[in-house]
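#struct-help
A.M.: can someone run this one for me? Single chain, 374 residues.
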Amino acid sequence: MYHVAVIRRLYVNNYRCLQNFDLPVAGMPSALLIGKNGAGKTTVGSALEILQKIARGTNRVGELVKPKDFTRGITDVPMRFEVEVELKKEIYGYALALELPEKFKELRVLEEKLTVDGKAVYTREIAQVHLAKWDQEKTAEFVIDWHLVALPIIQLAPPNDPISVFKQWLAQMLILRPIPSLIHGESDEGTLQPNRTVTDLGAWFTGLLASAPYAYAAVDEYLKQVMPDLKDIRNPLIGAESRSMVIQFANEQGSFANPFDDLSDGEKCFVICALVLAANSSYGPLVCFWDEPDNYLSLNEVGQFVVALRRGFQSGGQFIATSHNPEAIRRFSEENTLALFRNSHLEPTVVRSLKELQVNGDLADLLATGDLWS
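D.P.: on it. Structure tokens below:
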């Protein structure tokens, strides 16, 4: 069993439809977000993606959020993102508050802070950063541009310092909403940080195997469960540094090599699932937020797909999904299903657990009839 790494708390305020929004996922290896279209499910993923982008090096505030992202144009209240994570048996807390002063066209940092077990690693107010004493590091104060986030910039000396540990984990968080028709198997280099639409799947496969060659066994094992005639996956060089994935199928009638691009949309999602599971077990534990993972799958494939993802994160990491699909919803329980409500576009998103709602009857049927929201 590997170390647990889960989000204990995600708090967002004054960002799109999320006002004073607290996502209660503490202690949940997997969780499902349900709600009508427009309820805010995808926006939760967008908030996580902002934090992910910061850890991946995007430090210009204007490249993360725009003035239009304030809830209903309310600019006199800061936009705030807070995340609390259990990581390597310690509790990391990161908070970022952004403001738009009068006559400013771009948001700036109002406050920023990173803590470990309640102890400040650094704090920041507008341009002034205070680096607290950590191990052999001395306290320090310095000024940075108020339009830049400090987390990607600050470096401490030890390789296992808390800033590096937190940034690496946050950068490798998976925020997924795949568009299979745009996904190809080519790559010029490897990555362990796929983009949201997974259009760099080939680079992710290359990077995964370069980082952990044994991960191929996990990818192969899962794919042979859902595609029994699969023989192997190849990623041969097609140029000096370029590769292109090829899927080899075989049965008693023979064999043939299928370019990755020729797979169906659903089969490409199988490959994504296999990479998610292998990544979590090889260089995780990770948090994976997958917006509607059941898209592109047939009804008889959804249940097994969701169960495989839930099981893959049971011993470490965290899987958070959104869905409207009854087959996916039935694979979660009332303990880890959260309903997002929003009665109109003028109201903020409200989140309730099914335990709070005291749901009676089959949840999927209640969703189909609309009775859950009435």
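A.M.: thanks! The first strand starts at residue 5 and ends at 13.
D.P.: also worth noting: The chain has a mean pLDDT of 93.
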